[in-house]
Structures are given as structure tokens and as C-alpha cells.
Amino acid sequence: MVEKMYISYNNVHKLCKAGAEEFLEQVGKPDVIIAIGGGGFIPARIIRTFLRSPGEKNIPIQAIGLSLYEDMGTGTDDKIGKEVIRTQWLDFGALSQHFDSLIGKNILIVDEVDDTRTTLHYAVSELYKDVKEIAEKLGRTSEKTRLSIFVLHNKLKEKRAQIDEDKMGGGKYFVGKDVPDVWIAYPWESDDIDTHTQHAVEQGNI
Ligand SMILES: O=P(O)(O)OC[C@H]1O[C@H](OP(=O)(O)OP(=O)(O)O)[C@H](O)[C@@H]1O
Fold first, then answer.
1. Which one of 42, 109, 115 would you pick to mutate in the ligand 1 pocket, going by the greatest count of ligand atoms within 8 A of its CB?
2. Has this prediction a pTM greater than 0.90?
3. Whose CA is nearest to atom 10 of ligand 1?
4. Is the pLDDT of residue 111 over 60?
5. Phi, psi for 133 (deg, rounded to 5)
6. What's the domain range around 115?
7. Domain of 124: which CATH number?
8. Integer CA distances (angstroms), 164 to 56, 124, 193, in order
9. 36 CB less than 6 Å from ligand 1?
């Protein structure tokens, strides 16, 4: 097993294309894409290409910033915990005046990797909470909001958190590729993209 898995831009593109096809088939066209930054930005933009039919309006992409940081605090087990910090949240400024834009919508959350699942768990829980709160306020709780997920890679390992399916409202989880628990080197992190791509080709990740 390789210690470091090199991923090429072409590979990212193809995983997005396959993910979009699966998503369209199983869930249907999304109303909005929510990209978890920074790693989710590039896949979100690419997958949008394949989710849109020719002649249709672009699907809006909202960005949220979630960062993991080591919590050295009072965990009950001996592991160092991880906490999620919101560095940026939804902003419907130009899209609509209100946060109610998500109620009853088909939403696709995009990130590059599902590692311990902490980030995705947080994103789904918080989005569900926000939508529920505003739907209750507006008396629109009968409208079903679907939260789906697409990640390029899911690491096959013990997860620290699980995503509550009830909160996904019938939305689904899509993975480009399940991978072992190794270091994934994405092209946007590379300082020498030619060598990086060469490694990816050698490993068959093209
Ligand atoms: O499944 P988890 O264990 O939660 O890990 C996955 C998250 O970790 C990385 O984010 P990071 O905080 O490193 O920020 P980045 O996206 O800006 O690189 C990655 O982009 C995912 O969002």
C-alpha cells in the first residue's frame, strides 16, 4: 500500500463527473451546492459543470469555511479530540434576501475528503438546525429539505462521528472513491504539478 496517494487534476475531474451522474440519477438536480472550504471549492466548481443541463441557469455555489483544530482539552478518552471551527457561513446576500432560500431545497454539500467524518457531521447538523429554525419560524415545516453529500475520497477507517440520516431528509451520501487510510496528496497543494501528476499517473490515479 502506498504511503502517499497522488491525485491528478484529471482524476479529480473524472471523479466529479461520475459523482454528478450518480447524483442526478438518484437524487435529481440540486438547487444549490454548498462547498466546504478550502478543499471542497475546486471539486464543487467542477461537479457543477456536470450537474447543469445545457441552456439552464448555473447552480449557485455557496461557500462555508470549516476548519478542524486539535482540541487538547478534557476529552474522556486518551485520544486528542478534534473540533470544528466555523470560519465562514452561508450568505444569501445577492441570491435572496433571506436565509429561507434553503427550505424545501435539494442541497449538495461538497468536500474533498471524508477522513474522521467530523467535518461532514458538523456541516449536516448545523445546516439542518439552521433550516429547521427558520422553517419553524415561517410555518414551512412541511417542505422537505434534502441534504446530500459528495466527497472525492472517503477514507476507510473508524470514524469519529456519524452523519444522522434523518437530518439528510432523504438526501444521500456519494463518494468518488473509497480509499485506505493514507495521506492523499491533492494537486492544488502541490508546488511542482508536473512531478505530482507523474506520480499520480504511476499510481494509476489519472
Ligand atoms: O473528516 P474530517 O476528519 O473532519 O476531515 C476532513 C476535513 O479536513 C480537511 O479540512 P481542513 O480543516 O484541513 O481545511 P482545508 O479544507 O482548508 O484544507 C478537509 O478539507 C475536510 O474538510
1. 115
2. yes
3. 67
4. yes
5. -60, -50
6. 27-67+83-178
7. 3.40.50.2020
8. 33, 8, 38
9. yes
